[in-house]
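quick one if you have a minute, typing this from the bus. theres a chain ive been looking at and ive put its sequence and its fold in token form underneath. please have a look and point out which stretches look like helix strand or loop to you. anything you notice is useful, everything is just below.

***
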Amino acid sequence: MLPRLLPFLLYLATLTSCTAQQDKSPTAENSPYTFKTASQNGTGKYYLGREISYVMGHLAADWLERPEREREENVSQAIENMGIQADERIADIGAGSGYYTFRMARKASEGKVFAVDIQPEMLDLMQQRIEREGIENVELVRGSETSPQLAANSVDLVTMVDVYHELSHPRETMQNIVSALRPGGRFVLLEYRAEDPTVPIKRLHKMSEAQAVREMKAVGLRLRENVGNLPWQHFMVFVKE
């Protein structure tokens, strides 16, 4: 397992040019962020004790679509865990190549999936598939570093799959996500388990349940459940407090 992942892990260790710009300005008095010397794969920017990692750029899109991903991560089970209803409006934040987006769109056949990404190259990849397959219930959204650019009270479900740990402005982004959730809506967070040393992913690309709960509490979300049926990832469902 690990040898197959080594090229990708090396890519993450050296990635700089395709990274979203990180705010290196001095810490403001009311800022939730602090700055220290960056560790390997890290930005040197900290949020509630966690160093924010660099972003995986569009050049790694093929890794997102790797054939073994279903077997390694049990993506089908993760989507079943979401309990998607046919008429739901869903936002896939950091959609990347659309690996989850298009699978969720099949479940939400009478609804819509907003595929949000800040990288135009990823949006272009998804647009090509939309046109090639005639997909009608996926809408592409160019997000920013601080907002997914979703209207208030517009979505029933927001998902982030192995993306949250890379957000350069997690506080602002999550505040906007909470605003976008409809009453009774849910935020589903998938992150590689930091508690499990056997998961073959770099440390900064993992999160613990405790850290996730701490960061979500800061924006008014509470953990409803952590479904423990995936090989490598936490599947955490958050709702408004």
About this structure: The longest helix spans residues 120-133. Helices lie at 2-14, 61-64, 69-73, 75-81, 101-107, 120-133, 170-180, 209-217. The chain has one domain: 72-240.
